[in-house]
Specification:
With about 150 residues, the protein is mostly beta strands. It has one domain. Helix content is about 0%, strand content about 40%. The chain has no helices and ten strands. Strands 3, 4, 5, 6, 7, 8, 9 and 10 form an eight-stranded antiparallel sheet that branches. Strands 1-2 form a two-stranded antiparallel ribbon. The two termini are about 20 Å apart.
Amino acid sequence: MLVNAGDFVEIKTTTAKFVVTADKKILVSQYMVGQDGGFGTSDPAMLVTVNPQQWRKTYLFHAATNWQANYVDILAPKNAVVTVDAVNVANWQPVGVTNYQVAHVKLSNQNGGNHSVVGDVGVGISVYGVQSYGSYWYPGGLDLDVIPQ
C-alpha cells in the first residue's frame, strides 16, 4: 500500500499479466529486460503507461522498418472489436479476472512502417521494436482530456 507522495512499488521481473488499481492518481511504468537478462533480443527500455480514461478509438503510428521486429500491444475491454491495419485482432488473452484483454501483434513492414489501430471503444496501445542489443518502446498516443479530481 502506498501512503505518501513519492512512495513506490517495484514488481519483480515477470511475464504475468495484471492490473494496477489505485484510488488516487499514480504513474505506472513498465520496463523491458535486455537480452543479457535472458528475455530474448532487445535492450532495456521503459514505457510510461496511459490511463484508460485517456485511451483512444483510433491511432496512427510509425514503426521503423529497419528493426528486427516491431510489435503493437493492445489493451482493451473484453469483447472490443479492434483492427490493426484493417485486419481484425483475434489473438486476445484475458488479463486475470478483470474486464480487460490484451493482444500482442507483430507488425509488417508494409506501408513504409505506417500503421493504424482502430477500436469500437477506446483502447490503449504500446509500440515497440527490438534488435540485437537495441529496442524502443512508446505509448502509441493518448487523449489529453482533463481527468476530474
